[in-house]
Amino acid sequence: MSKRFTVGAVATAAVLALTVTGMAVPASAEPTTVRTFTVVAEDGVSGDAAVAAIRSAGGTVVSRTDEVGVYQVTSDRADFAAKATTAGALIGAAEQRAIGRKPKLDRVEQEHLLAAATTKAAARKPGKRPAKMDPLDDKLWGLEMIRADKARKVEPGDRRVTVGVLDTGVDASHPDIAPNFNWALSRNFAPDIPEIDGACEVASCLDPVGTDDGGHGTHVAGTVGAAANGYGLSGVAPGVSLVNLKGGQDSGYFFLNPVVNALLHAGRSGLDVVNMSFYVDPWLYNCTANPADSPEAQAAQRATIRAMKRALTFAHNRGVTLVGALGNNHEDLGDPRADSSSPNYGDVAPYPREIDNDSCWDLPTEGPHVVSVSSVGPSGEKAAYSNYGTEQTAIAAPGGWYRDGFGTDTFRTDANMILSTYPKKVLQEEGAVDEDGDIVPGAETFVFKECKKHGQCGYFTYLQGTSMAAPHASGVAALIVSRYGKSQGRGGYGLAPDSVERHLLRTATAHACPEPRLRSYVDEGRPVEFDAYCDGPVKLNGFYGHGIIDAYAAVTKPLKKSH
């Protein structure tokens, strides 16, 4: 999960929304800078009633999504959020207001770069590449761990099965992504915001479909379904179709309105799986009534909770299996620490908040119908950074752990992480590839370049995080749909998400808690704050949930019929 990737309220393309114009702000409003909000209506309130309440509070509706009661609004009234909070038809207004550009990836995912001075070359011995696997597949220990290499001999993935990558975008020009990219269903819901993303690449600030200026989404997409084409590397489900759902900013923020619209598009378009490796900005946890928060902040978080639950349920009810990264904050989500990182944008600086598990949610991973995934390293141990919890962890998957293998020559090596596809442009911006497309000295341990005979080249890099674990699970979910799905009306193909989830969990390899159950990571160089207690039996515990995903078992064990 990047940054642990973020989401909050931001401007978005009204691709699926009904645009409303001409709603004037009352003359009595005190002039101030025009600001953007995502407003959420109360349950049972009609779209027209919500729009009327927004107008009465001093807002102009830019777009509306009546199915889930979410509205993009601008206002020049300083008191708009307060008025929206007190309006009976509205839950609250979450404001988009940036405080500066954020790094594109978090410190967890790029730990190997921050430790460059002590990084060793990949010490892990390459695995034996099975026949007909791609050249870099011997570096993908995750494929071997979950037996995806064996699974593809039975089921490589059906092209009719669609996996939405709800992320920063997907680089469709990458030679390992291009064969499986679905142009027809892909959309961009997150226009660039210059204050946080830098200068817009195009005049409209809405990047073309098939581009990724953040890199994170392309890495995720490669793990799900990079093509098995004798080039580069292959994904867990190399035969499925990849759909770009750009709901995240180039800078790593994920705001509420684009994410909601992306989930609605997934449901309307009949996508089979959606991968979500982020959390909703600006709050690490959205709480219903945290006493540390102002009334407006409380209302904004209640609005986010309601909107995300509606959007996730909408997608699920229309056949989408939802997979989420559990997060990189090394904490028990059932007993979370105080949060001192929120809000991560706006006029108010982050401040400490005690987090109550009964009234606070990490979204989308703690949202309804989401299969939440923790991260393990090559040893099968829970990565130190990975969140966990008996209530939240559904399954575990390979997400990489740079510090795995303490006491061996693999400790603190790049090969402990997850190798996947990455945009050349982003690697150049990060300084790992020069203007001629060559890997710079010192980056050879974590960046790879593969070129085809005609000269087209693609790039690959290592990252780690629950963001890398979730797409392994999404890939297996896609294989399940491919193997056991059925043709549906109007040329569709799919499998009920509840059936997909049950089979994914049932076929996972059970993994017991460590002994002693309190796992210290001091040897790996982490402070006591990282100590994690694993609770629960072998078949369902806080570190591994139902176990580590098993692609081969998923496509060879019969699907149990629901009762």
Number of helices: 13
CATH topology of the domain at 111-332 and 353-369 and 409-502: Rossmann fold
Strand order of the largest sheet: 6-7-5-8-10-12-13
Low-confidence stretches: 2-31, 99-105
Give the fraction of residues assigned to helices: 10-25%
For the termini, the CA-CA separation is 35 Å
CATH class of the domain at 111-332 and 353-369 and 409-502, named Alpha Beta
Q: Which properties best describe this structure?
A:
563 residues, alpha/beta, Rossmann fold, four-stranded antiparallel sheet, 13 helices, 20 strands, globular
Report on this structure:
The chain is of the alpha/beta class and 563 residues long. It has a domain at 111-332 and 353-369 and 409-502: 3-Layer(aba) Sandwich (Rossmann fold). Helices cover 22% and strands 17% of the residues. It has 13 helices and 20 strands. The strands form 6 sheets. The chain has a 7-stranded parallel β-sheet, with helices on both faces. A hairpin with a 4-residue loop joins strand 2 (60-65) and strand 3. Helix 7 (216-225) runs parallel beside helix 11. The protein is globular. The two termini are 35 Å apart.
Quick summary:
The protein has 563 residues and is an alpha/beta fold.
Describe the secondary structure blueprint for this structure.
Blueprint: E1 31-41, H1 47-57, E2 60-65, E3 70-77, H2 80-86, E4 90-96, H3 111-114, H4 141-145, H5 148-154, E5 162-167, E6 187-188, H6 194-197, H7 216-225, E7 241-246, H8 256-269, E8 273-276, E9 286-287, H9 295-317, E10 321-325, E11 360-361, E12 370-376, E13 395-398, E14 418-422, H10 424-429, E15 447-451, E16 457-463, H11 466-484, E17 486-487, E18 493-494, H12 497-506, E19 518-519, E20 532-533, H13 551-556
Parallel strand pairs: 5-7, 5-8, 6-7, 8-10, 10-12, 12-13
Antiparallel strand pairs: 1-3, 1-4, 2-3, 9-11, 14-16, 15-16, 17-18, 19-20
Helix pairs in contact: 7-11, 8-9, 11-12
